[in-house]
Design goal:
Blueprint: H1 2-35, H2 39-57, H3 74-107, E1 110-111, H4 116-141, H5 145-170, H6 175-184, H7 199-231, H8 240-265, E2 268-269
Parallel strand pairs: 1-2
Helix pairs in contact: 1-2, 1-4, 2-8, 3-7, 3-8, 4-5, 4-8, 5-7, 7-8
Length: 271
């Protein structure tokens, strides 16, 4: 019992520590972008952030865990499901890698005219959602169903906030709301919003954020499903579905870790 309690505290403490690292690194890349625009440094910071999320939040090391030989055992099935999920995420990452290649090819060392403070804001929201998802997963592993439900609900709300921030504000689907929020983030009046028809910058931005928004929406649906099932006690004993949804959600975060500097920080603004 003492060992389990210590392990539980370690998991939760580790999640907090990784989030602090991610927050500091995000602030650092924003400072680099507005101060001296070092593209190599921005790439390095993004790679470090992604590595932290992949290892500590997505638990990539679990792929090396030895499974039971009995193919009817739950641990064996969870291990094969885990491998299948990672193969899917690797294949899905080629889609986003293609979008990144498109952005580099079309824009080079230029970027769309976007509000950098708003970009930092929505990025912070998504990173915070990953922290609560990790916490919810750890609490479910510890047998704390209410803690899992509470943190998963917070993750859902933050993810929804991120999605609405992109769709309503950045895409200007509701101009009155978008202009009001952008004004709060220091956007001067009369700035022409980016549109899909705004040349290569608009095409790149809407392709990248559109595909990412689709994955965020998929993640929100999965979060709703595991929250409802968790409420019914489905994961009190067998918790791999919670891990799977958490890994998918963190994958969405990793994609944005690269999209954020590519769209908001790297290069000079296209006028």
């Amino acid at each position: 019992m003492v060992h389990n309690t210590q392990e539980n505290k370690t998991l939760l403490g580790q999640g907090v520590l990784i989030f602090i690292y991610l927050a500091v690194l995000t602030g650092l890349e924003f400072f680099i972008a507005i101060s001296f625009q070092s593209v190599p440094l921005l790439i390095v910071v993004a790679l470090v952030k992604a590595a932290l999320v992949v290892y500590y939040y997505m638990h990539v090391y679990k792929l090396n865990l030895e499974a039971e030989v009995d193919d009817e055992a739950y641990d064996y099935k969870a291990g094969t499901n885990r491998l299948g999920l990672w193969l899917f995420l690797i294949s899905d990452s080629f889609v986003f890698a293609g979008l990144m290649a498109m952005r580099v090819n079309l824009l080079g060392l230029t970027r769309p005219q976007l509000n950098q403070f708003l970009g930092l804001g929505v990025t912070a929201v998504l990173l915070i959602s990953s922290f609560f998802m990790n916490r919810g997963e750890a609490l479910m592993h510890n047998g704390d169903r209410q803690g899992f439900l509470r943190n998963t609900a917070i993750t859902f709300l933050l993810g929804l906030g991120f999605l609405l921030g992109v769709v309503i504000i950045e895409w200007h689907t509701i101009p009155a709301i978008a202009e009001t929020v952008l004004h709060l983030f220091g956007e001067p009046a009369g700035v022409e919003p980016l549109k899909p028809t705004s040349g290569v910058a608009g095409a790149a931005f809407f392709m990248m954020t559109g595909m990412h928004a689709f994955h965020v929406l998929s993640g929100l649906i999965l979060l709703g499903i595991v929250w409802n099932n968790g409420r019914k006690g489905f994961y009190d004993e067998k918790q791999y579905p919670v891990e799977a949804v958490a890994v998918y959600w963190h994958f969405v975060d990793v994609v944005w870790i690269f999209f954020y500097p590519a769209l908001y920080l790297i290069g000079t603004v296209i006028k």
